[in-house]
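[Automated response] Your request has been received and processed.

Submitted sequence:
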Amino acid sequence: MPLLSSVKSVQSVEVIAGLILAAGESSRMGRDKSLLTYRGRTFLEHIIDTLRQAGIERPIVVLGHHAAEIQRAADLRGAEVLLNPRYHRGQTSSLQRGLRALEGRDVEAVMLCLVDHPAATPETVCSLIAAFRESRDAVVIPTYYDGRGHPTIIARALFAEILALSQDEGANMVVRRYRDATCEVEVNDPGILIDVDDPEAYRRLRSTPGSP
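Generated structure:
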């Protein structure tokens, strides 16, 4: 059973680290999602800047497929770049790669961002941080009407369980164990629900106002 008491016992929050997963093959899109553009920047650059505006400096970016090409094409000077040589094993391997990099650092939680969810606002990220600091819950998830979205905050107390997952198990297996320690934050931000997974989804994103 999850040790909810250990999650709730955090007395202070020193650092929330940013972690952007961008290692996948983008097979449904047909080109690297990291380098698609949103509001004048690549998805990766936009997410890094969103986190920076919310006070999260130097997030970790986990790359895999076409890592060298992405590093040449995108301005990642505001991030710490990690390579996941096992990216073909799935998203869990990239999440674990990022969490291992945080071992030994003064981090109380991670703001988990997926590169194909580029549209959340800095205000939303700030709201999630504030909710985590107030609630000390294991998981903080934004909602828009009835939909849960991204990014998500995961407390350090869950890291070991995520690191113990096999490659065919997703982080949701751990998150579901902590339903009673999950804080849902209602935000006025439909961007949290935008998942750009294929060309049609990208077309819809680019057709929204202010999204050339």
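Summary generated for your ticket: Residues 124 and 187 are 6 Å apart (CA to CA). The helical segments are 4-8, 43-53, 67-73, 91-101, 122-135, 159-163, 172-175, 199-207.
If you did not submit this request, please reply to this message.
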